[in-house]
Design a protein that fits this description.
Layout (H helix, E strand, L loop, with lengths): L4 E3 L3 E3 L2 E3 L2 E5 L3 E3 L2 E4 L6 E4 L1 E4 L2 E4 L6 E3 L4 E4 L2 E4 L2 E5 L7 E4 L2 E12 L2 E4 L2 E10 L4 E4 L2 E4 L4 E4 L3 E5 L3 E4 L2 E12 L2 E2 L3 E17 L2 E4 L6 E9 L2 E4 L6 E3 L6
Parallel strand pairs: 1-4, 2-5, 3-6, 4-7, 5-8, 6-9, 7-10, 8-11, 9-12, 10-13, 11-14, 12-15, 13-15, 14-16, 15-17, 17-19, 17-20, 18-21, 19-22, 20-23, 21-23, 23-25, 24-25, 25-26, 25-27, 26-28, 27-29
């Protein structure tokens, strides 16, 4: 697809290359085969509900994949994001990416998701950094982090609830925004707190290694943090604040 495609009835995709333009429909579009999103110097626009039960391979870079008018992507199949940025076309209309299948980050650079990213399935960060800039909720979902790779929370609120887990020997990087835990929750084996807020009305436990760094970024603890592992605190200049009777 190199131009704008608009459907008014339910449509099924099966083997498609999306290089440019807009995918638009007033009724849901179902993707059952393999959809490749490419074209490094062409923006793409999703203005529909796209349900993926097959495989999406997203290789776009430089220019964005925009979600327009509250667009929704429901992934119950496989979504492979290699690089690039997925974002809202307008701040007044927030898009949503719902993953109940398998989401993979597979190349050695940063990919940023600026729409709300909700996970009830499995996310594998196999290479590089996956930045959940737009916030969202992991409701019982799992993140698997390969050694040396990063899951980043840098803006907005990202919530872990109903037994959501982060597994593996990669790094959870909180550089801004808020990490929120609904219920008692345990940090992964390796975590870095560079900025932003840890928040919970319950208990957050560190049983691995938590590094508190970032000299010019304030950090806010708004929870009870129990440390049974190791905390390395080398932050400087700006403060680590305890809010609302926080306990460490």
């Amino acid at each position: 697809m190199a131009n704008n495609f608009v459907w008014v009835n339910a449509t099924t995709l099966n083997g498609t290359l999306w290089d440019n333009g807009t995918l638009s429909s007033v009724t849901p579009i179902t993707q059952i085969g393999t959809l490749t999103i490419s074209g490094g110097y062409n923006s793409k626009y999703l203005n529909a509900q796209l349900n993926n039960t097959g495989t999406i391979v997203d290789t776009h870079f430089n220019y964005l994949l925009y979600f327009q008018n509250g667009a929704i992507l429901n992934n119950s199949g496989i979504y492979e994001l290699q690089q690039g940025l997925i974002d809202n076309f307008s701040s007044s209309s927030v898009g949503t990416f719902n993953n109940s299948g398998t989401f993979k980050k597979t190349t050695a650079n940063t990919a940023t998701i600026g729409v709300a990213f909700n996970n009830t399935g499995t996310v594998n960060v196999e290479s590089g950094t996956l930045n959940l800039y737009g916030g969202g909720v992991s409701n019982g979902g799992t993140f698997n982090l390969t050694s040396g790779q990063n899951l980043e929370i840098s803006n907005s609120v990202y919530t872990f609830s109903n037994g959501a887990k982060i597994n593996g020997s990669g790094n959870l990087l909180v550089s801004g925004g808020t990490l929120q835990a609904d219920g008692n929750w345990t940090l992964p084996t390796i975590s870095t707190w560079y900025g932003g807020t840890f928040k919970s009305s319950n208990i957050i436990t560190n049983s691995g290694t938590l590094t508190i760094s970032g000299g010019y970024n304030s950090k806010y603890l708004n929870a009870q943090l129990n440390n049974t592992g190791t905390i390395v605190d080398n932050h400087s200049v700006y403060y680590l604040y305890f809010q609302n009777g926080a306990i460490l």
